[in-house]
Design a protein that fits this description.
By secondary structure, the protein is α+β, with helices and mostly antiparallel strands. The chain has 2 domains: about 160 residues, Sandwich (Jelly Rolls); about 100 residues, Orthogonal Bundle (Arc Repressor Mutant, subunit A). The protein is globular. The termini are far apart. This is Helix-turn-helix domain-containing protein. Keywords: DNA-binding, Transcription, Transcription regulation. Pfam families: HTH_18 (PF12833). GO terms for molecular function: DNA-binding transcription factor activity; sequence-specific DNA binding.
Length: about 270
């Protein structure tokens, strides 16, 4: 594989939405080693032969098979027969704008894999087809796409044999802890203590599995929960600030605006 410094960087998200869903191109056979800097890519094959090389792994394509390519990973295809399947490309902006906490969790969990074989191929194909149809629709709905994407990821992970081992990592214990917290804390030290590990070890685990620091992971959860509370509850800004462990309304408003670009009130009005 070529040195990463001279690898081609592909960006399939130019001139498209923050998510793209389409059939896998039948013309694709061999590609040069490359990486994606701006998006997460899912590829699902229902028919194809050959292999997929990702980082230091060489994976034989035996459909049905689902591949995950994270940002910065180096990969290439060597496909020997006409491929059939689907591709989903997800930009960071799509994830940032998503207020569905469970969908965030599913994206985090599935991003820890390079590939796996789904157990219920018929259901997976049906959901992919519904996603592709909704994406092509002139009246496409983000909420429908998010709902179908959540169903797809949940179904893909439902019977995965490595899921128990995956959930035993420090990173996934951390994200499970965040998902089940009644009151989030913006403190790496606090969660490291609950996990009986050091802040340094927690940071290392996060960076290895999702490419972010522990504090960035916490921030993602806080902002996702803030969006959900703003859009789907009648809580006041002050109540949301308290729920998310901010000292006061002002501190929460400054934090939200710094990360999102809008005040909580402006964000709620625009959505």
């Amino acid at each position: 594989m070529k040195d990463a410094a001279v690898l081609k960087i592909k960006d399939k998200t130019q001139s498209i939405d923050t998510i793209k869903i389409e059939p896998f191109k039948k013309s694709v056979r061999k590609t040069a080693p490359h990486k994606h800097n701006k998006y997460l890519e899912f590829v699902y094959f229902t028919n194809a032969t050959g292999y997929h090389a990702i980082d230091n792994l060489k994976i034989t394509i035996k459909p049905p098979i689902f591949f995950v390519v994270r940002k910065e990973q180096v990969h290439f295809w060597d496909i020997t027969t006409e491929p059939e399947g689907f591709v989903i490309i997800i930009k960071k902006e799509f994830i940032d704008d998503c207020a569905d906490f469970e969908l965030h969790q599913l994206l985090l969990k599935i991003s820890a894999f390079t590939h796996f074989t789904p157990k219920d191929n018929t259901s997976i194909i049906t959901i992919f087809e519904l996603l592709s149809t909704e994406y092509k629709s002139k009246t496409k709905s983000r909420s429908i796409i998010e709902g179908l994407l959540k169903a797809l990821l949940g179904k893909l992970l439902q019977f995965n044999t490595n899921d128990q081992q995956l959930n035993n990592s420090v990173y996934h214990k951390f994200t499970d802890l965040l998902a089940n917290e009644n009151k989030l804390s913006n403190s790496v030290e606090y969660y490291a203590e609950l996990l009986n590990t050091s802040p340094q070890n927690l940071n290392t685990s996060c960076r290895n599995e999702c490419g972010k620091s522990a504090s960035e992971v916490i921030s993602d959860y806080i902002l996702s929960e803030a969006k959900r509370l703003l859009l789907y509850t009648d809580k006041t800004i002050t109540e949301i600030a308290y729920t998310l462990s901010f000292k006061d309304n002002s501190h929460f408003t400054k934090y939200f605006k710094r990360h999102i670009g809008f005040t909580p009130s402006a964000y709620k009005l625009q959505h």
